[in-house]
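for the writeup, i need someone to sanity check this before i put it in the appendix. the sequnce is what the collaborator sent (i think, or maybe the updated version? ugh). structure was predicted straight from it, no edits. if anything looks off just tell me and ill rerun, i have time this weekend
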Amino acid sequence: MRGKEEYLSAFIGTYTEPIRFGTGAVLQGKGKGIYWLTLDLRDGSLKWEGLTEQVRNPSYLAISPSRKFLYAVNELKEYEGEKSGSVTALRIDWIEKRLLFLNRQPSLGTDPCHVTLNAEGTHLFVSNFMSGSVTVFPVHSDGSLGEPTDFIQHKGSSVDPVRQTGPHAHSLTLSPDERFAFVPDLGIDQIVIYSFDRRTGKLLKAPIPNCPVSKGAGPRHFEFHPSGKFAFLINELASSLDLYKYEGKSGNLVLKQRVSTLPEGYTGPNTCADLHVHPSGKFVYGSNRGHDSIVVFFMDEGKECLEYRYHYSTLGKTPRNFAVDPTGNYLVVANQDSDTIVTFKIDTKDGRLIDASSIEIPTPVCVKLIKY
């Protein structure tokens, strides 16, 4: 009998109905809900396990630290007659390989696109993209979501006449000690910084309340280096990646470097999507939509800089989201517009990617990997 350590579960969020993006383009969602796959760590192959239907546009997922619950934002512009999306709480039935509905709460903003939890799993954070706001929910002991403990509406705009006429909160990342929360806002070209009060579930104004990003960059996703000494930001509109030195006491970010995510000489259309750091801390990966690639950088901690290494085709169209597995051996990409999930083997010596496996999933948007 094969051991559980040889497998990971892969939960895939999809678009299930039409959605209008900030660009004005409309995507016809073809997904049926949240898909459950198994990733074989011996060869990178993916196997179908199940499907949870009747979850509308579950475009981003988060799994509780206890591994008992899964949360999905429902990327909608209207929910129960209000201008709002919603967030759905589900219990993970590991034996029957199914997700069981717990409850659903309005997100209090339109097109929620990101969800995450604190390390103890007591609070859940939702970023509402289109309306530019952040909502905090308490998590009950049974995994269900309570009434919001906080709601913050961003304000402002930036230089892009189409994409930056108002705020667009794109994600939230807690600092390693969870004292601070960092929210890249694509619409106002800032990383908005909050102090997180776990006792009250409130996001308070931080001593240094924001980190400006270059005009027109469109900040999207933010992630810390395993050492906690550095952080990275991927910019959707500028197709760039920023490296910051992190000052943990104050929550301040000091820009050290800005690099392009595109190969030299490329002039076609492109927007960046996702960003992840290898568990070893040696490699940083970013996804390009348009160039349809994963860019690989080497992180030199001593020199405090990123060194370009490779570009790899994602073997599909519009790599929206991807994940690096906890063992550091595989990278799994969701190609939104070609309906494929592609697995790459990671060469842990130099970060290069090697084709491994693929499976068809309609309009995949999010990949979350977790051990059994």
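Residues 4-371 form a domain with the Methylamine Dehydrogenase; Chain H fold (CATH 2.130.10.10). The CA atoms of residues 161 and 286 lie 26 Å apart.
thx in advance!!
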